[in-house]
């Protein structure tokens, strides 16, 4: 039965990836939006301006959906079709690669058309920077950086944890990542309360971000880049970013695209100066399109790898070791 479950997980993840590629994010009744409402209700009941309260909030907000997912996985352990459909639905809901690439291409079209007002209006769909004073080069840079980072968050991360832990891994990762977006950012309200969520998100993304960077290096030829250059920039610049994970993805993307990222970022009243990543010039609208294409290629590679790993675990469990036979013969 364990073998059948793992095969169902692999097929379900593949179907979920196909659904995302065809339809993008669900238009209505998105489960992540429902989780956001649940987490908001928990926050209202548990909020206090200290880290202990934030840790309790994170435990409940992440633990509850993981327990539901684990119970669902257990209930479908002898129902491979149901298991496949549940995993497919969860994977579709957790992935955001198609919508991410689409938003990037919309930004490129608006920049190409010279419509800065609509390009600025588009940026909040991609990141939280203040777009009001940004020109075309900075809008392009913000988009490329967001696409690179979110390729890990919205694609590779859920697939990695699905390969590792099946349905609970997919659901748990999406819960952690959503909480980080809700309370993990720097603000007066969440400076302490959001610490646990932010640190858990950092931990959950340590491996996926580096897998994303490695796949970005391998996918560089798909956008006219060189894997050797992408690898060089990743290894040199990946640790310069204040985030332990975002810089890995952004540096690899900068190397693959042959551009330079980083600089001054404005988030409301907060200003951050990010180190430069890469050796080229600032990104142009063409590079925004290339970044979207790179994200799609990396996502496809991650989907194939995750399904192969999950199915491979089933084959390893099915392979007899022969130890028991030899032992019985000796007896």
Please describe the topology of this protein.
Blueprint: H1 2-23, H2 31-46, H3 51-75, H4 80-94, H5 97-112, H6 116-122, H7 136-183, H8 195-204, H9 206-219, H10 227-237, H11 246-257, E1 264-267, E2 270-273, H12 285-318, H13 323-330
Antiparallel strand pairs: 1-2
Helix pairs in contact: 1-4, 1-7, 1-12, 2-3, 2-7, 3-7, 4-7, 5-6, 5-7, 5-12, 7-8, 7-9, 7-11, 7-12, 9-10, 9-11, 9-12, 10-11
Pathway: Cofactor biosynthesis; adenosylcobalamin biosynthesis
Function: Converts cobyric acid to cobinamide by the addition of aminopropanol on the F carboxylic group.
Main location: membrane
Structure description:
There is one protein chain. The protein has 331 residues and is an all-alpha fold. It is built from 13 helices and two strands, in the order αααααααααααββαα. It has helices spanning 2-23, 31-46, 51-75, 80-94, 97-112, 116-122, 136-183, 195-204, 206-219, 227-237, 246-257, 285-318, 323-330, and strands at 264-267, 270-273. Strand 1 and strand 2 form a beta hairpin. Helix 5 runs antiparallel to helix 7 (136-183) and helix 7 packs across helix 8 (195-204). The longest helix is centred in the middle third of the chain and has 48 residues, at 136-183. The chain starts with a helix and ends with a helix.
Low-confidence runs: 322-331
Give the N-to-C terminal Cα separation: 29 Å
Overall helicity: over 70%
For the biggest β-sheet, the strand order reads: 1-2
